[in-house]
Automatic annotation (TrEMBL):
Organism this protein belongs to: Edaphobacter aggregans
Name assigned to this protein: Iron complex transport system ATP-binding protein
Ranges where the ABC transporter domain occurs: 5-251
Pfam families linked: ABC_tran
Source lineage: Bacteria, Pseudomonadati, Acidobacteriota, Terriglobia, Terriglobales
Recorded GO MF terms: ATP binding; ATP hydrolysis activity
Amino acid sequence: MTPFLHLAHVNVARGENIVLHDINLSVNAGEHIAILGPNGCGKSTLIKTITCECYPIAQPDTTVSIFGRERWDLTELKKRLGVVSAELPGRQTLTTTGRDAVLTGFFSSSTLWPNLTVTEAMRTRADEVLEQIGAVPLANKPVGEMSAGQQRRIMIGRALVGSSSTGSDRQMLLLDEPSNALDIAAQQDLRDLLRRLAQQGTGILLITHHVSDIIPEIDRILMMKDGRIVADGPKSELLTAPHLSALFRTEVHLTQKDGFHHAW
């Protein structure tokens, strides 16, 4: 499979504290992976390292390769990385329509500024993505008038618009706690959408501390604790009550239904 990400011996500091310790991770395009761990374990810093918002400590054996390259023009890289977080890109996004918000993914901008040129091919691709994510009715609706779940759907479209579904530019979604601030119905809608995208071949790298966010199509689990990857393997082996109890440092009970796991 085409490589998406390769990290070797990556250490990252935030201020004076080292928050990621000796991270070694390889991800292929099209893989479905969940990174699971308690708050403060370094999950979001790992995403920021992948997107070059944080940089590793320079060491001889450290390697960061994204889409097979170690050096990138960050403007171009941001167009290739489909990142979805719990926050909108900027307050200007609130007054942008759903279609235009998707189009901003071509430019990694918060809105369609006057200096940006949108081509017909871009508009066609945006309409394809709106269809793909089931958001055609939101095309002309301002993002600020949408529910949190609708906004998250549009941000997923924004993340997908710059990539294709096959080849070296295969779609990869990086989702950082995507169900935060969503009610039960919106969480279910989000999981249904992610399932459909996964079944269509979109790669998913999901960061969460909610076991119920892990859709059935995710088959690989990484567990993080104290800034380290402490486990990496098949979901069937790692998503167990003993492993979760050790990870979250509390007694965890686990049930499974229709491919989803629920913990309490």
